[in-house]
Sequence to fold (165 residues):
Amino acid sequence: MKSKLLLLVLSAFIVSCTQKQELTQKEKDQIKSEVKSAVDNILAKFEKLDPSLVSECYWDSQDFIEISVDGSKADFQTSKKGTSDFLSAAASIKLALTQEDYKCLSKDIVVCAWMGKEKITLKTGEAITISPLITTLIFKNIEGRWKAIYLHESGTETILPAGKK
Fold:
């Protein structure tokens, strides 16, 4: 009898530990607000040509993945160097988001998708427009901060030589 009771209690404990905890709407709204703040920080750093963008906003791990508009794949270190080189070559960047969507998968994981347009002017005078620009980010709460652990961009890129409008 004791073994059956112990088995029943143990089974109930295992089931309660493995059941997915549903977030309340208030919790989801709070998480979305926090992640939106992290996204706004990424966008602001990008437009300010701030090279600390990657190290402050992305997960410093070999498991970080970035897929760029050109289809290339990068880990954290490659993304950090590529972003720094790109921001050094840019004279200005303007992003215009037309749509944002946030999906809370858990208390610690959020998927963010946005659509918009990006205009880049390089120091050489070349102008790059990406429209539409579709970006998907997966954020994870790491030590109390929302960090992008996955980034995938796609879009249609148009490059105009210097002096052309």
Notes: The chain has one domain: 25-160. The two ends are 84 Å apart (CA to CA). The domain at 25-160 is CATH 3.10.450.50 (Nuclear Transport Factor 2; Chain: A,).
